[in-house]
């Protein structure tokens, strides 16, 4: 469908000054609700508006939603980015845009524990392929595609403080028709791994997955269930970290921010983050669950994504590459 353009100077897409001025307050409010860096609003004219405009040109109003996958390593800023883009599309381009997080599609705690007991105890730790309810997710996407004017559906919300889904009456309501869906998550769009799966990659795999049962099962899910789920994506955007080493520092930054704001966390943050703050040691062990797939995606996703955001070690978007149709 698309041929990748090698470079793109996204400063060249100019937006009306009135639109930028009108939406600045909306973006500031979004960043404030997420406890994000207020200085990100300065990315309005060189990042948020150009990308939103490009998506608005791809949206096919009245013909079902445009599904945009947004992937990237933990801590790279996907949630904040998608929240801002959604607000801009809604308020600036009159498009009904919703954000769906892969984190909200986890299987129930009961189902995850049951599966872990049948396969590997490592599946008790949510996050990797195999801990989401893919069948349920597919039914939601199908329903969303056919959502008509005046119809309402609910999307699940996962509560990390209880490690389970919230009650249905607390789920997010989505009104139809939907024009754009931003489907975000650290492994959204991940293809199966092709590296040697027999050798442990880190201390966690060596200690808890010496026989490779867990990691090979994760890859099997990527080859089967998740391939079907990700086939729903029309356009894939990927946030490329400069190296795997910075991912820990980004994730640790999130934990320390949570620690500093723990006394006043409420509302939207309860839906998106854990209430228990991990120590640096706990975080390093936790991230080993994601290391193999994260390294794989850093290697392959730049050539697979339709839109590539290249990040600096400070999480700044240094360049953006768009596809060109042929």
Question: What report would you give on this structure?
Answer:
By secondary structure, the protein is of the alpha/beta class. Helix content is 41%, strand content 16%. It has helices at 17-33, 44-58, 78-92, 109-118, 134-145, 203-208, 213-223, 225-230, 245-261, 280-304; strands at 2-4, 66-72, 97-101, 152-155, 158-159, 164-165, 172-175, 180-184, 235-240, 307-311, 317-321, 323-325. The protein has a six-stranded mixed beta sheet, sandwiched between helices. It has a two-stranded antiparallel sheet with strand order 1-12. Helix 1 (17-33) crosses helix 3 (78-92) and helix 2 (44-58) crosses helix 3 (78-92). The radius of gyration is 19 Å and the shape is globular. The chain starts with a strand and ends with a strand. Mean pLDDT is 88; it is low at 1-12 and 265-275.
The biggest beta sheet is recorded as:
6 strands, mixed
**Helix/strand order:** EHHEHEHHEEEEEHHHEHHEEE
Name the average pLDDT.
Answer: 88
Extract low-pLDDT stretches.
1-12, 265-275
What is the approximate shape? globular
Q: Which structural class fits the helix and strand makeup? A: alpha/beta
Strand order of the largest sheet: 3-8-2-9-10-11
Helix-residue proportion:
40-55%
Radius of gyration: 19 Å
Using DSSP, what is the number of strands? 12
Q: In percent terms, what proportion of residues is strand? A: 15-25%
> Number of helical segments?
10
Distance between the termini: 7 Å
